[in-house]
Amino acid sequence: MIPQSFIADLLNRVDIVDVVGRYVQLKKGGANYQGLCPFHSEKSPSFTVSPTKQFYHCFGCGAHGTAIGFLIEYSGMGFVDAVKDLAQNVGMVVPEQDDKIPPAQRAAQQQQSMALSDAMSKANEFYRAELRKAPQAIAYLKGRGLTGEIAARFALGYSPSGWDSLKAVFPDYENPVLVEAGLIIQNVDEDGKRTKRYDRFRERVMFPIRNTKGQVIAFGGRIMDQGEPKYLNSPETPLFSKGSELYGLFEARQAIRDAGYVLVTEGYMDVVALAQMGFPQAVATLGTACTTTHVHKLLRQTDNVIFSFDGDKAGRRAARRALEACLPHVSDDKTIKFLFLPAEHDPDSYIREYGAQAFEQQVHEAMPLSQFLLREAAGEHDLTSPEGRARVQFDAKPLLQAMPPTSLRLQIVRGLATMTQSTPGEIEQLFELAKPVAANKKAPPKSRREQPVGLELKLIRVVLTHPTLALELDDEALLAFSHFGQEAAERLVWLMVQAQSLGEQGSFAAFCQLVKETGSDYDALIGEIAAAPEPDLEGERLWLLATVRHLKMDALKQELDQLFTAGLSSEEIGVRYREITAKQDQLRKEAEAELSPR
User: Fold this and answer.
1) What is residue 300's DSSP assignment?
2) pLDDT tens digits, 377-414
3) Considering the entire predicted model, what is its pTM?
4) Cis ω before 535 (30° cut-off from 0)
5) CB-CB neighbours of 282 under 10 Å
6) 3-state secondary structure 111-131
7) CA of 114: how far to CAs of 94, 171, 488, in Å?
């Protein structure tokens, strides 16, 4: 049982606007966000999400609840799964048993967290007030093209030159909370005794870093003149982990939804300047390399992530680290791209010189992850020599091993195979990739094997003739071949997978060669196909899809007939029944679409 104290802490950390916004298009309306209710059909929005109450409510159908309740109702998750999903998004670990922390200790922890948050909020208000009294800081921001409106949106401030300016806000300057929050630096001598204590940030433009609920958890300070470091960030604290947070994400959430993508930059000023120039969907990593946590958080916001890096060597190194962070999260329904500006430009300078429209064009022409990975692997190696091609494979191996077994990985494998004069199967076997797709497995043994006849034979003939048609078959199609019995199903699945491994370039000749090399005995059938007139590709395609659809329908009907005798609970039966009937409806719609005139 998950402790109630953990649930309360979780709901305090997640932002329901983010959670609901993953599934419902929300727009700001006063203090709340509004959208079309996902639980009933409506044309005008009656569904509201309150960031202050962390609650959703529909005035039309009455649905309401917390972030946990929304996931349960919308996604069909169980309670525990919904809690785990939310906890993962904010870096929390769900306890597997009752919470053993004594109430007094937990209360102390909560009190400490509140004290840190309060200190950061007060410091932020102080810095904002100081900016209004700092003409040199105002002149600097104006010189960077920023307006007062943008400065207010991002709550920009200024830390004055004094060593202990924060005494004006915190009369108890010795309070240990100020050190723990990263606002104050406490020097310690060789004997461990405390010596000088002073403000961490001095004479810097201040960028408050906010979590997804808008609470200030850290600061970034930029020097206005020459000096090092150019940017000074808050240290790691109980509130702030730079490997998990993204600057500007709180401010950019709605803009990301509106634009359909997020633009990831390298610095605070890039984010603020881009917002000024019409690209409010920008965020930045916080003085550290992009991490897998960053990528996970970004992909929670949108299916399209574009990394924008400066064109210098440092930008190239940052892009490589971002690529490595992205690979574990690659999926076929997400798009990740990399934008490289000319060496002398960052996003801010590029827009100022060429304009917003030119930058927008750069964004649209960003390099896909697959192309960037292959380019990184190729490097400057000599692809005309065996040694050069071997080195390319050596460099590509850890990158491909980091990827889950997706269609995109298969496409990259095919690209690498072409580049290095190999086959996709050889690449997958050499790299020992998890769940290989293209590897040429051995054909089913010949001994005592029945020869294919009837419908099975027709399927084999079609895919041998046009192997690219196999690319239109999904996993459920392959499972539907069990209709023919185990041996025939294994034969069909094996043949379809081999055809798919050839990709879009698959041809009758190439497939025949592949089949021959595996030792399977289709020589007679191949001979018949070679001698026969070329069949109509579109006609064969329609027949294949219709046949597979019919097999799927038969499999679903058989499962439906056996559902009530499968020993499942009534709840499980209900869930599976709805799944089966939904799939049947989808197949019927596909059939109707195929028959409709084009």
Assistant:
1) H
2) 999 999 999 999 999 999 999 999 999 988 899 999 99
3) 0.62
4) no
5) 27
6) HHHHHHHHHHHHHHHHHHHHH
7) 22, 18, 66
Indicate the residue type of 362: Q
Q: What is the DSSP letter of 441?
A: P
Tell me if residue 103 falls in helix, strand or coil. Answer: helix
Cα–Cα distance measured from residue 454 to residue 119, given in angstroms and rounded to the nearest whole number: 78
The per-residue pLDDT for range 543-568, each reduced to its tens digit, is 888 888 888 888 888 877 777 777 77
Q: Which of 180, 155, 179, 288 is nearest to 238 (CA)?
A: 180
Token pair of 298, please? Answer: 């970004």
Cα distance between the two ends of the chain: 56
| Pair type for strands 55-58 and 47-50 | antiparallel
Q: Is residue 200 a contact partner of residue 182, using CB atoms and an 8 Å limit?
A: yes
Nearest to 137 by CA among 123, 158, 121, 122: 158
**Token output for 480:** 């539907």
Is residue 14 within 8 A of residue 89, CB to CB? The reply is yes
517/443 Cα distance (integer angstroms):
10
Residue type, 44: S
- Run of H or E residues at 65: strand 64-65
Beta strands 335-340; 304-309: pairing state: parallel
Question: Tokens representing 383?
Answer: 């692809």
